[in-house]
Amino acid sequence: MSGSTGERSFADIITSIRYWIIHSITIPSLFIAGWLFVSTGLAYDVFGSPRPNETYPIFTVRWLAVHGLAVPTVSFLGSISAMQFIQR
After folding, report:
1. CA dihedral defined by 42, 47, 48, 53, rounded to 10 degrees?
2. Rounded CA gap, 12 and 14, in Å?
3. Tens digit of pLDDT for each residue in 23-70?
4. What broad class describes the main subcellular location of this protein (predicted)?
């Protein structure tokens, strides 16, 4: 039933010389372009992400915030469990 709407079969496409010429150029070109984009550091500049040798200040701020909340949470849970014993 393939080809009933006018499309070419898959076997016909991959045996075509035109298919291999196009893909033998485009696939390596995309790979090389991606490699250059990352290796030159342009990806860091375009997306605004810090480079590996830079510090991540947002991580330390988040770490301090999480650990600052951990102590009151533990004491709050401890006081709740202590209140259960007191009220009985």
Report:
1. -60
2. 6
3. 999 999 999 999 999 999 999 999 988 887 776 665 566 666 666 665
4. membrane
- Give the integer Cα–Cα distance in Å for 19 and 57: 49
Residue pair 43/37 in contact (Cβ under 8 Å)? The answer is: yes
Q: Cα–Cα distance between 37 and 43 in angstroms, integer? A: 6
Angle at 64 between CA 60 and CA 66, to 5 degrees: 115
- Reduce the secondary structure of the chain to three states and give it as a string: CCCCCCCCCHHHHHCCHHHHHHHHHHHHHHHHHHHHHHHCCHHHHHHCCCCCCCCCHHHHHHHHHHHHHHHHHHHHHHHHHHHHHHHC
Quote the tokens at residue 18. Answer: 């035109």
Sequence letter at residue 4: S
